Amino acid sequence: MDTRTALVTGGSRGLGRALAAHLAATGWRVVVDARRLDPDDLPPGVVGVVGDVADPEHRRRLAEVIDGLGGLDALVNNASLLGPSPLRALTDHPLDALEEVLRVNVVAPLGLVQALHPLLRAGARIVDVSSDAAVEATAGWGVYGASKAALDQLTAVLAVEDPQLRVYAFDPGDMRTDMHQRAFPGEDISDRPEPRTVVPALLRLLSDRPDSGRYRAADLTVREPA
Predict the structure, then answer these.
(1) What residues contact 164, with CB distance under 8 A and at least 6 apart?
(2) CB neighbour list of residue 165: distance below 8 Å, 6 or more residues apart
(3) What does the alpha-carbon distance between residue 97 and residue 99 come to, in Å, rounded to a whole number?
(4) What is the model's pLDDT at position 226?
(5) Given its phi and psi angles, is residue 72 left (phi above 0), alpha (psi -120 to 50 degrees) or beta?
(6) What's this model's pTM, rounded to 2 decimal places?
(7) Residue 147, CB half-sphere, CA atoms under 13 Å: how many?
(8) What does the alpha-carbon distance between residue 198 and residue 173 come to, in Å, rounded to a whole number?
């Protein structure tokens, strides 16, 4: 059986890093990208490609890497941009920052799907990491939430247009990450779960291949993978 290959964007820390480490440890061939990436700091078996996923040239480079590996079984669009910290009300949010958030959180994932589409193997899975901010109206989270709501819609339409794929919007819930800390500067977020605790739920999507759709980590029956 061919080695399964996964690409995880934003894989240098947080959920992306935790997922990449687990996949590599269980026999997957894993490629990650990030704007700042130390190859010597990556988990064993993980290949890093430095770059900004919002850059079309970087996306083409990732496609070349995946092509050289013979195709892709799983794409996890995990890279995200929060926007200004502390969070801003919509009436005070810089529009250039809004455009940047949309480029990273909406345009880049679709651009990567387009670049990698010819390289997706039969039964491939696409996971777009979403947020509860996409479906809840919370002060300060308007721009980030709008970007994730747009990503959710792209995910749902892609599933309809490409039914041979499994396409998921995955809401991991609150996690103890650098991005979440930036959303609450100066606050103690140690009560949030670590990203590695969410990995088993995401793995259910990759291993069990349920119907395409939007899934919350909290709603998946989490079990330790074999």
Answers:
(1) 122
(2) 120, 124, 125, 126, 158, 159, 212
(3) 5
(4) 39
(5) beta
(6) 0.93
(7) 24
(8) 9
CA distance 3 to 183: 38
Active site residue 168: no
- Distance between CA atoms of residues 131 and 128, nearest Å: 10
The DSSP letter of residue 213 is: E
Q: Residue 131: name the closest of 91, 179, 196 by CA.
A: 179
CA angle 93, 89, 96 (to 5 degrees): 10
Active site residue 114: no
Q: Are the C-beta atoms of 140 and 88 separated by less than 8 Å?
A: yes
Catalytic residue among 22, 58, 59, 148: 148
Asked, as a colleague might, if the bond just before 185 is cis with ω within 30 of 0, I would say no
Residue 112, SS3 per DSSP: helix
Over the chain (226 residues), what is each successive 10-residue block's mean pLDDT? 89 93 96 89 90 97 97 97 93 97 98 98 96 95 97 98 97 78 72 87 94 94 48
Q: Which of 7, 66, 80, 144 is catalytic?
A: 144
Q: List the domains of the chain with CATH numbers.
A: 5-215 (3.40.50.720)
The one-letter amino acid at 108: A
